[in-house]
Structures are given as structure tokens and as C-alpha cells.
Amino acid sequence: MSKPKESKSTNTEIVSKNSKYLKQLEEENLKLRIENAYLKELRRLRLEGEALLKKQRESSTASEETSN
Length: 68
Fold this sequence. Notes:
The chain is an all-alpha fold and 68 residues long. It contains 1 helix and no strands. It has one helix at residues 8-67. The longest helix is centred in the middle third of the chain and has 60 residues, at 8-67. It starts with 7 loop residues before the first helix and ends with a helix.
């Protein structure tokens, strides 16, 4: 027994649906990449700020100790 051939329109519909789905996935992937980059930069800035505050505290503590 041979398989019945699918009509050309059915194949076109499948390709169209797959194309749309692929486009949706690519858009979602792009959005997630942007969000990930944003969160990484936010974390980097936060850690940089914390390090700066720590350094300032250490230097102010050291200056208080030398002034006593």
C-alpha cells in the first residue's frame, strides 16, 4: 500500500504554520537575549556600586583610626 499524496495546499499550510512558529520562537529568543543582557548589566552595576561603597567605608574607617 502506498501513502496517499498530500495536496499541495496542505503542504503549503504546514510550511506556513512552521514558518510562523519559527518566527515566534526567534522573536522570543531575541527578547530573552535582550532581557538577559539587561539583567547582567544591572548585576554588574550593582556589584560595582557595592564594591565602591565598601572601598569608601574602608577608607573612611582607616582615616578615623589615624585621626584618633
